[in-house]
Amino acid sequence: GRDLICIQSMDGMLMLFEQESYAFGRFLPGFLLPGPLTYSSRTDSFITVSSCRQVESYKYQVLAFATDADERQETEQQKLSSGKRLAVDWVLNIGEQALDICVVSFNQAVSSVFVLGERNFFCLKDNGQIRFMKKLDYSPSCFIPYCSVKEGTINTLIGNHSKMLNVYQDVTLKWATQLPHVPVSVKVANLQDLKGVIVTLSDDGHLQCSYLGTDPSLFQAPTVDSREINYEEFDTEMKELQKIIKEATKTEDILPKSEKHRDLIVTAEVSPDLDAQSQAIDSEVKAEAVPSVTVKITIQSRVTAQKPILAVCVQAPLAVTCDQFVFDDLEPDSSETVVLSVFLKRNCSPSELEGNCLVSYNIPTDLNPEGILKVAQCNFRLPLRLICFPAQPSKAANHKLTIDTNKPPVSFVTIFPDFVDPSEDDQANVLGFQFLTGSKTTLLASKTSQRYRIQSDQLEDLWLITKELTLRLEEHFKKQNCKDFACTFSGSIPLQEYFELIDQHFELRLNAEKFQELLSERAVQFRAIERRLLTRFKDKTPAPLQHLDTLLEGTFREVIALADAAEENQANVFQAFTKLKSATHLVIMLISLWQKLSPDQVAILEATFLPLAEDTPELGWEETVDAAVSYLLRTCLSKSSKEQALTLSSQLCVPKDTNRLKKNITLFCDRLAKGGRLSLSTESATQEAAVMPG
Known about the structure:
The protein is α+β, with helices and mostly antiparallel strands. The longest helix is centred in the last third of the chain and has 48 residues, at 548-595. InterPro entries: PHTB1_GAE_dom (IPR028074), PHTB1_N_dom (IPR028073), PTHB1 (IPR026511), PTHB1_CtH_dom (IPR055364), PTHB1_hp_dom (IPR055363), PTHB1_pf_dom (IPR055362).
């Protein structure tokens, strides 16, 4: 019939009161910070979680007969001899700080001690043994065990910092619900006629009573009056409603009206001459002088354009002096102009001499004041003089190509005025190009036949000169109103030389993987030696290092050397991929001239052989192109329905070698030579299942 009160202080003292009278005080051993404390009436003991992250149980009887808190000045010897030392009843190490402890005992369930940790939820027996535990994948804030409807189990409500309340039956999650706040305390109560009300308290003092369920529907459908239906009135009403709906769904206020003239126009003008003073910054090219060319970009706006941002892109190894410009809002009929320079940054020839300007801007509307995002873009072509200069032609070369035309040969003085000195007559039919990277390419025009020959020591160097030749010939004959000009190629496709470039690129990719593995191994070794050394240094009586410091220094040097080698290999991979792209462009062009392919078929070729703008360790050129070529061989270029029935693997991974890819490319060219036509519209059943890379 008495009330007993136990108070835990910040210094680890338990003060016990009987009614209003102070009974005694005891200090808990090994105390640092107070933890949750509860009393178990079944075992007459106090249960707490100490700073050692273990659950400790102290019998009330042991507390009562232990040394009093006021007598702590006794020496350790006196305490041992007196026999009143405070002893723990049982200990369980849970390895984490506890948030709360609760002792429950229901009729149908065994008496249990519940401990809520920072990451786990424990249920213990009276003697400290674990009945069960549950690992939580969230940060809990409070909990309360309550009676379960199922015999032998206990339900628990656990709140967390994600504003969720989870209902568990022992370790099984039965329900999860969202709360409007983070609960710091939760209880289950019966209020009036409503049983099982969940009472939660937030950290800012809001008390909420809620229940798991749905509100009953109080709506009752009214009785329908039986009357005759007037269909004419219904038709009239339906037409009026449809008219209202049509007016409401008009998008003219949401989206701007589509007009014949664009709201914003971006144009790029490339200077016909190179910069008098080069603007190249941090170029890796080893040439004496790295030229640059000025590009003038103009933005003209017919409407109000908010937050316009201009991005200028050129493919590496080319670079721009500034690739992004942010403008203030443009007023109607206003314009902005920026000037930048393009130059060769890395020490290899580019695969394309083209750039792209892209402007993103917002146009405000009545319903959307922030505006609707729109994009305008334009392309520009860079001059050949940016990456090469006139040089003495070379007679001998490893790789030669012959392009046939249906018109008499044109003098190079006419189509290459920027490379030819008019005073030298011998340059009318032969021309030399020296790339900034050091390689040479020679261009020859036949005096008797309608042919042009391009020759170089490197296959990839043929591409840009061949492309420039065809473009300038087309422009020349277009100016003369000649519409039937055409280029053809009757030689053999240089597949073997192309395959050598593929093998070089693939070998460098494999080297990159090897360097990655070696770096991982050395890093693991470095960390292991570091741990050993730290253990030795932390030891109060340090043992000899046994040359661990020498081993650490040697491993560190290996890691640095491997990282440098991996970085150098990465630069080589980039150069090899750029060369491969140039050679691929050349092969596509030769196939299209050889087979007289239409623009749509050339687009399919480019999507097949040039699916990636850049190589990545996860997805490389070889496996992507192999999948694309395999798809074409099994669909539009298949010889039988048996080939079409073969399924393609949808997973792309780095192949062991390039044999299959080279075999498929050779087969691809053979099928085209035998009359195969490129097309994506096929009635093959496998088209739906196969994935077209790129």
